Input
Amino acid sequence: MLSESRISGAARRFAAAVLLAALLPAVLPPGTSAQHVLTLVDALSIAMENSPNIRHTKFRLEASEARLRAQEAGLKTQFGLTLGPISYQNTNRFDEFFSTWYRYESKNIAGQFTIRQPIKWTDGVLSLNDRLSWHDTYTEVNDESTKNFRNELYLEFDQPLFTYNRMKMDLNVLELDFESSQLTYAIAQLNLERTVMNEFYNLYEIKMRLEINRDAMDTDREHHRIMKNKYDAGIGKLDDLTQAETDMLSSESNHNNTVVSLANALDRFKYRIGLPIDDDIDIDADIAFSPVGVDMDFAVRHGLETRMELRQQEITIANAYNSVVRAGTVNEFSGDLHLSWGSSGTNPDFTNIYNKRTDEQAVRISFDIPIWDWGQKENTILASEINLESHKLALEEDRYEITMDIRESCRELDNLVRQIELARRRIESAEKTYEINLEKYQNGDITTQVLGDYRQTLSNARLSEIRELINYRLQLLDLKIKSLWDFENDRPVVELTTEM
Output
């Protein structure tokens, strides 16, 4: 049982706190910022907005998306208009047949409209070109001036032969890069959540330790007051008063040390989530314990199916495979096919430009045939294939390690449930023991030092329970990150998409 003096002291402190809370707005100077109480959700939200690493990762994601959009836009029909050349020339030329110089003057204006369509499936390009030009020339040899319009309309097709589809591979590389950037961003968010949650609960543990130390300090002060009154009344011993004073000074020192630790932890926490260091904050943590059922087999299976690190390894393997394909183009046998069909017309009168139409066709094909490269191509491909096999091996190692990590996390979670139950039983035992010995102390059967030991045992038991509860929350988060499944809410953690 607690002494009446201790109860009355607690009542006085509570009344003073209520009065202070009522008078605080009136006594605070204008412009003083109020204290912000943050929950874990609040802290995570602020950190997601302010974290430099998250912001850098988001910038890389946005840049990757922009590159992919640019590449996809380049595969759509392109329209272009070229004006020129617009030229004027007035010069002397030499006629070798007549061995004489003559003046030559020309004026030219031209423009070309082009519709260009890349063909992703073949790596070819189909284009429609319409070129309109006007020519005005004067030759002194026969003292004649020629003016006419000319229009050329033709369809062209260019197709690489016997090589890989560069257009399709470039698009695939950018799609993989965008997906990898999404994964990196999601992983960074999960890592930030882990970091913030660790520091948040570390801050909460210090805060709880401060409350326990404050209670211990108040209790020791009350004990010291009782011992002093007894000693002054001539019914107490000097040794008991000295021990009570030592215990009081020790608890005051512990309390002050914890105050400093809490202030430092608050500054570090504000830095971590990106708040100004002068902000006045406090935290409100919920560590209510409710055991969460975990299916180890499901956790492992879901982790192997969805872990973003594994998908990143698969992307790395896909890029390594692309490198093998590119390596095969070293000194490769390849060709180019060019087809062209169209018509042209020339006439001084623009409206009659096609009176004498001329049909034009062209076929051009070329081959690049390597003869001997001293093994350059073979070794380039070999190096790329070895790199590919290395990435495949790394993927298998990652899968094995992820399986082990998830299984260990599930076992640790189950063990923490038992540890929390044990911690609560230790608290019940320590509370009963303390109450029994407090009554003995009040009856003068035990010393202050002995009672202090029992009180310290109770404080340690309470701190132990807080640590176990925090460890359980952190271990639950660890399993969520490792399996990408939120067992508390029974839902997946992230759902990625490459759609834009």
User: Anything to note?
Assistant: The chain has a mean pLDDT of 85.
